[in-house]
Amino acid sequence: MTSSASESQLRETGSKFMPKFDDKGLISAVVVDHDTSDVLMVAFMDAEALAATRETGLAHFHSRSRGKLWKKGETSGNVLRVQAMLVDCDQDAMVLRCKPEGPTCHTGATSCFYRILEGEELGRLPG
């Protein structure tokens, strides 16, 4: 077994946390409501955001537009309190189960996923 194959097997079946960042140093993070399991948002985490999230219990992400660490709610106060961090099989994506303190979306919507594709148009979901 090659070193790469054994690392892959360890990452996929072992118990050691070994996040697999992409070529930009990021992993995908899907945020879901801890109580309802509704999808709230999708963002990206780098090593710094992952460490800050684990350290504080508040969701931190890497802002691609600003190119820096971003604590969700740093200006709005609408933080995401992380209850659990789920890691996918090859450790390149995560699900953060959070308790939101206020709306998650910058538009003021509870979730960033407030629209539905209906043919070629976007309809607004109730609520």
Automatic annotation (TrEMBL):
The record ties this protein, via PANTHER family, to: HISTIDINE BIOSYNTHESIS BIFUNCTIONAL PROTEIN, HISTIDINE BIOSYNTHESIS BIFUNCTIONAL PROTEIN HIS7
Q: What is the lineage of its organism?
A: Bacteria, Pseudomonadati, Pseudomonadota, Alphaproteobacteria, Sphingomonadales
Pathway given in the UniProt record: Amino-acid biosynthesis; L-histidine biosynthesis; L-histidine from 5-phospho-alpha-D-ribose 1-diphosphate: step 2/9; Amino-acid biosynthesis; L-histidine biosynthesis; L-histidine from 5-phospho-alpha-D-ribose 1-diphosphate: step 3/9
Q: Which InterPro entries match?
A: PRib_AMP_CycHydrolase_dom, PRib_AMP_CycHydrolase_sf
Q: Might you name a Gene Ontology BP term for this protein?
A: L-histidine biosynthetic process
Identify the residues that the record assigns to the Phosphoribosyl-AMP cyclohydrolase domain, covering every copy.
41-114
Tell me the protein's name.
Histidine biosynthesis bifunctional protein HisIE
> Annotated Gene Ontology MF terms?
phosphoribosyl-AMP cyclohydrolase activity; phosphoribosyl-ATP diphosphatase activity
Species assigned in the record: Pontixanthobacter aestiaquae
